[in-house]
UniProtKB/TrEMBL annotation, chain A:
The keyword Isomerase applies. Gene3D superfamilies: 3.40.1360.10, Winged helix-like DNA-binding domain superfamily/Winged helix DNA-binding domain. This is DNA topoisomerase 6 subunit A. The active site is at Y164.
UniProtKB/TrEMBL annotation, chain B:
Pfam families: HATPase_c_3, Topo-VIb_trans. The lineage of its organism: Eukaryota, Viridiplantae, Streptophyta, Embryophyta, Tracheophyta. GO terms for biological process: DNA topological change. Component of the DNA topoisomerase VI involved in chromatin organization and progression of endoreduplication cycles. Relaxes both positive and negative superturns and exhibits a strong decatenase activity. The B subunit binds ATP. This is DNA topoisomerase 6 subunit B.
Length: 421, 676
């Protein structure tokens, strides 16, 4: 009797296990999955040997504005030239004004050949002697002067530092941040070449080593938290890796799970997250990895419109910083999951799915109109399914099958089936 | 129709039988019937008599609305006097002939203070005094001892005599008893825009007075060209729904007065409904600026007395609403039967053509053809079977008809609405708009809106004034379509209006042959009717658009004054920043000389290092530029806006003598009166 019960319990245990981790039995041995990944990596490497297109390669009907990385001395010269022209204008009794490239939505253009957003050449005049622009013009001159000082001393400061140099004038940080982007556009250089950085946000862990300001960093030995992505990319060099792919994760929680489970040791990979909307540093770092290591990039985002939006920022750039999209975007990111079709494919229970709000549905419908979604028929299909089913799910929804389901079953299975778009 | 009449009679007969004095054993099976008066006495909340306070309010409004209707029906500019007189208990007792009795057994009463309660109270008072003394010692402000609220016994009712006098049509001598003493008999039952909501009016006040005080209603009335005044004192036999006349006599009319004066004594509550009643009067004055109101509250304690005059601001009255016929899509089965019963037309064709709007002769013929072979143009209308009537009803619901026109409606008019707002609120700005007539379920409706900014006795934020068929709606504001629209669907920022800081008055008046009220009290219009919601939204928006240009002008004028200061404020910051760049570059240039710069820039740097150009020179030049720009812009502004306008004050001049021979030329925004 006791024996029987024991057996039954054992039975029920195994039942439990398969119920908790559905599809586990479908998994092939890791070696097989690794082989498919190897194939992907080789394919990517051979494909990306061809030279990447630039704006000048295309003969676009409208001229577009792009910025470049400039050395400090030329930034200095540019600022000086600008200041001198302003001074001359003042001395001749005409006041002064800036010609600021417009970063409004109407001045953006998606270029399918480049697969990113670029800025068109419309600009607006910002005169000092006008009630509506006097404050902004003053802030612009002040930022110019501050950046000039930075370039003279060759130091880096954060956007927050910049704001605190004259709180009274800037009033709040959004104003100085916006003007900083304007100044980048006016001078025609990237924000990094202005020596202004944002606070660290992104983290990286996995099979990569690189040097940060001369110190060698091995990201397999960074503990669970990983290495914070350095805010200025010019400090980073000597990248090397034996990874097969880069895994881009939207959420901190999923990143932690994968890092703790040492997912990168089972399947050699580099795991990156920017904890939500990506900052400039993370985007620059991802691009550098992609360009130097020539690895495929797979993205793991929530199954909601914002997940796709984040994906698009990595891939095609944000509208606010489209003037620098050449340096900030990473081409050819594959959407691995969680995709709307996965909800049914992996039988995610109803209680873990969330109904989309009206705002969500509207965002989804707007996204369907965006060029960067339309260029990928698979994405259009998935997004239409999401808008139709009116359901969304976060990466954490997979935790219903156990906290480790993501790293133990879902991701391996996805990789095995080459289920990316 | 015959059956209908017999059912009208039956309650009276039934009640006659049932009204034996000795109480009998309750019989479960006896079928009881209620007279309409009894029904309303039991369900007085549906007519707005929920509690004594609300009853006082509803009584006032019913009397005022009757008075306005009456005056408008004879095209007389209304003059309405409302007096509420507080009657204390002993006075009330003497009125009903009851002698005041002293209490003998104190413990019998609800407000009797038991020994325990007294101990508690004394302890509390002692504690209070202690704190007070402490506070006084500490030099804190001493709070007045709140007079201990005595427990209010149930019997502690307050009574009020409500008097309302108007200069309207008056009532025919012989009709008066029936007009007051019979519920659901009214003159306002046709299809037209009316103020009354149920046709109960003064009758409900009479039922309430009967229930609460038992005192009769007193009516004086005189009609034009009538040599006498009718005086009538009556109450109502609730069970039989007939008037019970005390006095009904003719008296001399000395002042050549015409109109009616109604006096009723009811239980009420002035303290809790004071503000509601005053709001009602004020809002009524807004929507009826051509009427003169005199409101008085009289009591023994003179500091509570109120006396407000709402003066007439215009003598242009909206036209009297016309009675109209039903629209085919607005009738139900019962209504068709009633129309058939009442019609004088013989055959179906004439019936369709004349008893409904928007059915012409050819249209009627087509409809009859569509009804089926049983119907013909010559079919006698009275011989239609119930099935045939159902068929007509079905067709009415499915067929397409033109929308009814809004000609039968009488909106307040933009002119009056604007004057009403100005006269009662004294706003800084006001804009009004009248939307064109629209249709909901076969009933035409017109939405008028006004938006005001600033003014006296207006609180910050949105102040919403709702009117339905030209009477104010005061209760259940939250769910109303106007409130919802103004709060949620108007983006006030677009029109440079600050929704929380500015004093915004939103006035929306909806008139219709049938207002789609929600709720039993008929106090609000639901938010679910998209036709009305969108009309309200566009009307308010139109007002805002008008205001926006005025507000922008005002902002410009203010900017004009502050421009120079704002521009000059940043000169130091801007030139300082530019100078810093130049100075540091010049030092660098002097030291290393390895910068590839243009000659003119080098020259400039040279001047900076030799202090030919300093921060001060830059500031000075920029200040000159600002000065010049400011001057140019001031000139431009002056040429645009013309000569500086002196603040003007609105005045209103009343006509010197009431002259009768004139003609009015109406436009939505003004009236031009030509004296002949």
């Amino acid at each position: 009797m006791a024996d029987k019960r024991k057996r039954r319990r054992a039975d029920s245990d195994s039942d439990d296990d398969s119920a908790r981790l559905p599809f586990k039995n479908r998994l092939k041995p890791d070696s097989a999955i690794l082989a498919t990944l190897q194939a992907l990596t080789t394919a990517t490497k051979s494909a990306s040997t061809s030279k990447t297109l630039t704006l000048s390669d295309l003969s676009l009907s409208s001229t577009c504005r792009e910025v470049t990385d400039l050395p400090l001395s030329s930034v200095q010269t540019k600022i000086l030239t600008l200041a001198a022209s302003l001074a001359r204008s003042i001395l001749s009794g005409n006041g002064f004004s800036f010609s600021v490239p417009s970063r409004a939505a109407t001045n953006q253009l998606y270029v399918p050949e480049l697969d990113r957003i670029v800025l068109k050449d419309k600009s607006s005049i910002r005169p000092y002697a006008s009630v509506s622009t006097v404050r902004k013009t003053t802030i612009t001159t002040r930022i110019l002067s501050l950046i000039h000082q930075l370039s003279l001393k060759n130091i880096h400061v954060t956007k927050r530092d910049l704001f605190y140099t004259d709180v009274k004038l800037f009033q709040d940080q959004t104003q100085s941040d916006a003007v900083l982007d304007d100044v980048s556009c006016i001078l025609g250089c990237t924000r990094s070449s202005l020596n202004v950085v944002a606070a660290e946000k992104g983290v990286v862990v996995g099979r990569i080593t690189f040097s940060d300001n001369g110190d060698m960093i091995d990201c397999t030995k960074m503990g669970i938290g990983g290495k914070a992505i350095p805010p200025n990319i010019d400090r980073v060099g000597d990248m090397s890796s034996d990874a097969l792919f880069i895994l881009l994760v939207e959420k901190d929680a999923a990143y932690m799970r994968l890092a703790e489970d040492r997912f990168y040791n089972r399947f050699p990979c580099i795991i990156v997250t920017a904890k939500g909307q990506p900052d400039v540093a993370t985007r620059l770092f991802l691009r550098k990895m992609k360009m130097e290591l020539k690895l495929p990039v797979l993205a793991l985002v929530d199954s909601d419109p914002y997940g796709l939006k984040i994906l698009s920022v990595y891939g095609c750039g944000s509208k606010n910083m489209s003037y620098d999209s050449a340096n900030l975007t990473t081409p050819d990111i594959k959407w691995l999951g969680i995709r709307p079709s996965d909800l049914d494919k992996y039988k995610i229970p109803e209680q873990c799915r969330l109904p989309m709000t009206e705002q969500d549905i509207k965002t989804g419908k707007d996204l369907l109109e965006e060029d960067f979604v339309k260029k990928n028929p698979g994405w259009v299909e998935e997004l239409s399914l999401m808008v139709k089913s009116k359901q969304k799910a976060e990466i954490q929804a997979l935790s219903t099958f156990g906290f480790q389901y993501l790293s133990e079953v879902y991701l391996p299975l996805k990789l095995q089936q080459q289920d990316w778009l | 129709m015959d059956t209908g009449e017999s059912s009208d009679e039956s309650p009276i007969q039934a009640n006659k039988k049932g009204k034996s004095k000795t109480p009998r054993k309750p019989k479960a099976s006896t079928l009881k019937q209620k007279s309409p008066a009894e029904f309303f006495a039991e369900n007085k909340n549906i007519a707005g008599f929920d509690n004594p306070g609300k009853s006082l309010y509803t009584t006032v409004r019913e009397l005022v609305e009757n008075a306005l209707d009456s005056a408008e029906s004879v095209a007389e500019l209304p003059f309405v006097e409302v007096t509420i007189e507080e009657i204390n208990k002993s006075k009330f007792n003497s009125m009903i002939g009851l002698i005041d009795r002293e209490r003998i057994d104190e413990a019998l009463y609800g407000d009797f203070e038991t020994v325990k309660a007294r101990e508690k109270r004394l302890a509390k008072e002692a504690r209070f005094q202690e704190i007070q003394a402490k506070n006084a010692a500490l030099g804190k402000k001493v709070k007045e001892q709140t007079s201990a609220k005595g427990m209010k016994g149930r019997g502690e009712a307050s009574f009020y005599r409500v008097t309302c006098k108007d200069n309207g049509r008056g009532m025919p001598h012989d009709d008066i008893p029936n007009m007051f003493g019979r519920v659901l008999s009214g003159t306002k039952y046709g299809l037209k825009q009316t103020r009354g909501k149920f046709g109960l009016g003064a009758k409900m006040a009479l039922i309430w007075s009967k229930m609460s005080t038992g005192l009769p209603i007193e009516i004086s009335s005189s009609m034009k060209n009538q040599s006498y005044t009718t005086f009538c004192r009556l109450d109502i036999d609730i069970h039989r729904n007939i008037p019970h006349i005390h006095v009904h006599e003719k008296r001399d009319d000395k002042e050549q007065w015409h109109g009616a004066e109604i006096q009723v004594v009811i239980e009420g509550n002035w303290t809790t409904y004071r503000s509601k009643i005053l709001h009602y009067m004020r809002q009524m004055a807004v929507i009826t600026p051509y009427a003169q109101f005199m409101f008085r509250f009289v009591s023994d304690t003179s500091d509570k007395n109120v006396s407000i005059r709402f003066t007439r601001r215009t003598d242009v009255m909206p036209a009297v609403p016309l009675e109209t016929k039903y629209h085919p899509s607005a009738v139900d089965l019962l209504l068709i039967k009633r129309l058939i019963g009442e019609t004088t037309k013989q055959n179906l064709l004439q019936f369709l053509q004349h008893e409904f709007v928007n059915i012409g002769k050819s249209h009627a013929e087509r409809l009859i053809g569509e009804m089926g072979p049983d119907f013909g143009p010559k079919t006698p209308v009275k011989s239609l079977t119930p099935q045939q009537i159902v068929r007509i009803h079905q067709l009415f619901r499915q067929a397409k008809f033109d929308d009814p026109s809004g000609d039968c409606l009488s909106p307040a008019g933009e002119y009056n609405l604007r004057l009403g707002i100005i006269k009662e609120l004294h706003p800084d700005m006001v804009a009004t708009y009248t939307a064109s007539a629209q249709v909901f379920e076969g009933h035409p409706f017109i939405v008028e809106a006004g938006v005001s900014l600033g003014g006296k006795d207006v609180k910050q934020g949105l102040n919403i004034f709702r009117f339905a068929n030209r009477i104010p709606l005061l209760f259940e504001q939250g769910a109303d379509v106007v409130t919802r629209t103004a709060m949620k669907r108007i983006n006030w920022n677009t029109y440079k209006i600050n929704q929380t800081q500015d004093k915004i008055g939103v006035f929306v008046s909806i008139v219709s042959t049938k207002i789609p009220f929600k709720g039993t009290g008929k106090e609000y219009i639901g938010d679910d009717i998209s036709e009305i919601a969108s009309a309200v939204k566009t009307s308010i928006k139109q007002c805002c658009i008008q205001l926006k240009s005025k507000i922008v002008k005002k902002i410009q004028a203010r900017e004009q004054q502050e421009r120079k200061r704002n521009l000059a404020k940043y000169i130091g910051d801007a030139t300082g920043a530019i100078y810093d760049i130049l100075k540091e570059s010049s030092q660098l240039h002097a030291k290393k000389k390895r910068m590839e710069i243009k000659d003119e820039d080098a020259e400039l740097l040279q001047k900076v290092s030799s202090r030919l150009i300093t921060k001060e020179t830059l500031s000075e030049k920029l200040a000159q530029h600002v000065e010049q720009v400011d001057y140019e812009m001031a000139m431009e502004y002056a040429t645009q806006s013309g000569v500086r306008e002196e603040p003007r004050e609105n005045i209103y001049i009343q006509a010197l003598e009431p002259q009768k021979n004139f003609m009015d030329l109406h436009s939505p925004v003004f009236v031009f009166r030509l004296f002949l």
